[in-house]
Structure formats: structure tokens, C-alpha cells
Amino acid sequence: MENASRRSALKAVTTGAVVVGAAILGRTAVGNEPKAPQLWPLEGELKVHPKYIYRYYLQFGDGQKCALYGSDHSREPDHLARLQLPIRVRVRGVLGTAHHPGGTKKDPSPFPPTWELYMDVHEVEKLK
Fold first, then answer.
1. N- to C-terminal Cα separation, the chain
2. Where are the domains of the chain?
3. 27: which DSSP letter?
4. pLDDT in tens, 68-116
5. Cβ count within 10 A of residue 56
6. pTM
7. Which CATH class is domain 40-127?
């Protein structure tokens, strides 16, 4: 009887190790994987700035702006480039902030130091 319980215990431990190994190697969700970022909606008028740090931006009714980048943080997102301006849009994406330090004496910048609110856009919808 004692041998049977040792075998059962060894079999249970081996099975447990195989399950854990398969979860790690097979990328089975085990509850501690990073969550997908939350996509936030914004609505406004889509505008283009030819020479600024960002090319596309939303302008809200009160004059505030939000820079728009592609989902991979590219400066020229295809899904925005295809739209005919002027147009009102609803975009969904990941919000963030970035600091532009301005220039240095060695490398001057025409843009002053500033913080910008930006969105990495995942979805675009035309509004009427």
C-alpha cells in the first residue's frame, strides 16, 4: 500500500509540472498576463499641421488640441490620411502625454518646451 501512495504522489507531481510547463510554453492564460490598454473615445474636428511635431490632431470646440498618431505611434497614420478634410471624427485609442523639451544650444528647435496630449488611434469613424 505504501508503494501505491508514493506512485500516486509522484504521478500527481509530474502531471502538475507538465500542466504548469504547458501553460508557460503554450502561453495559456493563467490570470497574470498584461491586460490590453483601454481605448478611449474622442470627438472633434480633424486637422493637419504641416510642420509641427505631430501631423494630425483633433481640435475640440473650446480650442484645445489632441495630437493623433497611428496605433504604432507613427506620425502619418493611413486611416487618417485617407479622409477628406475638413471633417468631424470620432476616434478611439490609447491616450498619453509626452514632453517636448524644446531645443538646446547645440541642437535648436523651432518649437518651445511643451507638454502634449496625444492618442495612438486604433479606430476612426466619420461624423455628420
1. 79
2. 1-33, 40-127
3. T
4. 998 888 878 888 888 888 899 999 999 999 998 888 888 888 888 889 9
5. 24
6. 0.66
7. mainly beta
